[in-house]
TrEMBL record:
Coiled coil: none
Cell compartments where the protein resides: Cytoplasm
Domain PTS EIIB type-4: 1-159
Keywords for this protein: Cytoplasm, Kinase, Phosphotransferase system, Sugar transport, Transferase, Transport
SUPFAM superfamilies: PTS IIb component
Native source organism of the sequence: Lactiplantibacillus daoliensis
InterPro entries associated with the record: PTS_IIB_sorbose-sp, PTS_IIB_sorbose-sp_sf
Protein name, as recorded: PTS system mannose/fructose/N-acetylgalactosamine-transporter subunit IIB
Domain of life assignment: Bacteria
UniProt KW Ribonucleoprotein keyword: no
Length: 159
């Protein structure tokens, strides 16, 4: 996936940490959010766009549009930070043939039915299964809250 410098799971999508630490630290010129619900809600899209740092473009799109755009190499000459809420989206992209080699798990909040596997990461059974499926497909899945933190293999927390 040419042009993508980081792929992150963070249920907050675009927020202070993504905007200030990740986007500026990685010197991205675009933050892409793939989320069908948000992409179809103009209010949520507006709020996320306001959270992005000035000078950084945003793409808030559906899975289908993302697959089409990425397969067409639309972002090849950019520096894109891709953010999704749930691992299922990334598993869908991999299953569609996109070459995702590494994923960073940031924040997945505690919700009803989740089990906390590490500080800031709580998973529903299906999210755990999706992460395990990504790992089984050869994707390097790490946990890292901020760029200064050490990367830790997510499989350590899924045992």
């Amino acid at each position: 996936m040419q042009g993508f410098v980081n792929i992150r799971i963070d249920d907050r999508l675009i927020h202070g940490q993504v905007a200030t630490r990740w986007a500026t630290g990685l010197r991205v010129n675009r933050i892409m959010v793939i989320d069908d619900e948000v992409a179809n809600d103009s209010v949520q899209k507006s709020i996320l766009r306001m959270a992005a740092p000035s000078g950084i473009s945003t793409s808030i799109i559906t899975e289908e549009k993302a697959i089409t755009n990425i397969q067409a190499d639309k972002y090849a000459k950019q520096r894109v930070l891709l953010v999704v809420r749930r691992p299922k989206v990334l598993l869908d992209l991999v299953n569609a043939g996109l070459d995702i080699t590494k994923i960073n798990v940031g924040n997945m909040s505690n919700r009803e039915g989740t089990v906390q596997v590490k500080k800031s990461v709580s998973l529903l059974p299906e999210e755990r299964a999706d992460l395990e499926a990504l790992i089984a497909k050869g994707v390097d899945v790490t946990a890292q809250m901020v760029p200064d933190d050490a990367e830790v293999e997510m499989s350590k927390f899924l045992k």
